[in-house]
Design a protein that fits this description.
transferase, Carbamate kinase, cytoplasm, alpha/beta, 16 strands, two-stranded antiparallel sheet, 9 helices, about 35% helix
């Protein structure tokens, strides 16, 4: 009598791989722009998991582009230099003196560390800043706060994107890692650009399928602080209606998502970067995590 089929302990792994199959097929060859930020930037285990996820996407046939800021690292460096910093309208006021530190931290510290983590898995990542090859150009951003135009220093508003250098790296099988600083054609100065905004602008210009924004919350909450229920999916118009009610820190992220889907990106997602491998969970599982923003349905189509 033949023995019963042995139950293999690895079977759940096979089921997970099969679940990923339709998503692998769907995303193959597509560009995905990932904004790296929040707690994932400072926790060693989360940083390592992030690098593994990005390299996995690359080897799974996607074309990942990483855009990063460096809020915690910039704050720490400014403290070390004795430079006091403040925020207005959710953006860091950046003096001439502070800009030198911002540039040094983003291009010389955060980017180098991220490139190093990715390149532990092979000669894949190449770092560049928005200054390089005019990838991002900007002008001085003067936000309106309580009806008044406010000067927040060397903070840039994006005026142009040139994807040539990034496209060349992608065509060469590399993973571009972009620091969110830009040079102005108006005055030649270098500006600090919000990384959420930069990631969204690059996603639209690259014709990316997906923009993913890593943050320190689970997603967009339905009725914060009264409820911690996360909105799993909403349209561009629904998001636009919600924007005035959002906290200052979430506004650039959600405005970025709105800009991306209105600019032709198929989906924009806000993910909890505190969850290890959140990128893989979002892209390759049926459930997904976080909040997904999609374009409005064409006129006459049902939602």
């Amino acid at each position: 009598m033949s023995s019963p089929t042995r139950r293999h302990t690895a079977l759940p792994k096979a089921r997970i791989l099969i679940e990923a199959l339709p998503w692998l097929v769907r995303h193959n060859g597509r560009t995905v722009v990932i904004k790296f930020g929040g707690n994932a930037m400072v926790d060693e285990d989360l940083k390592a998991a992030f690098a593994q996820d990005v390299v996995f996407l690359h080897h799974a046939g996607l074309r990942p582009v990483v855009v990063h800021g460096g809020g915690p690292q910039i704050s720490a460096a400014l403290d070390r230099h004795g430079i006091v910093t403040e925020f207005k309208a959710g953006l860091r006021v950046t003096t001439e003196e502070a800009m030198d530190v911002v540039r040094m931290v983003l291009a010389g510290q955060v980017q180098r560390e991220l490139v190093g983590l990715l390149n532990q898995h092979g000669p894949l990542a190449v770092g560049l800043t928005g200054e390089d090859a005019h990838t991002i150009t900007a002008t001085r951003h003067r936000p309106e706060i309580d009806g008044e135009i406010v000067d927040i220093g060397r903070v840039g508003e994006i005026t142009g994107i040139d994807t040539g250098a990034i496209e060349a790296l992608l065509a060469d099988g590399r993973i571009p890692v972009v620091s969110s600083i830009a040079r102005s054609e108006d005055d030649g100065h270098v500006y600090n650009v919000n990384a959420d905004t930069a990631a969204a602008a690059l996603a639209a210009a690259l014709g990316a399928e997906t923009l993913m924004v890593l943050t320190d919350v689970e997603g967009l909450y339905e009725d914060w602080p009264r409820s911690d229920e996360v909105i799993s999916r909403l349209t561009a118009s629904e998001l636009e209606r919600l924007l005035p009610e959002l906290s200052a820190g979430m506004v650039p992220k959600m405005e970025g998502c709105l800009h991306a889907v209105r600019g032709g990106v198929t989906t924009a997602r806000v993910l909890d970067g505190r969850v290890p491998h959140s990128i893989l969970l979002e892209i390759f599982t049926d459930e997904g995590i976080g909040t997904m923003v999609v374009p409005d349905a064409p006129e006459g189509d049902a939602e």
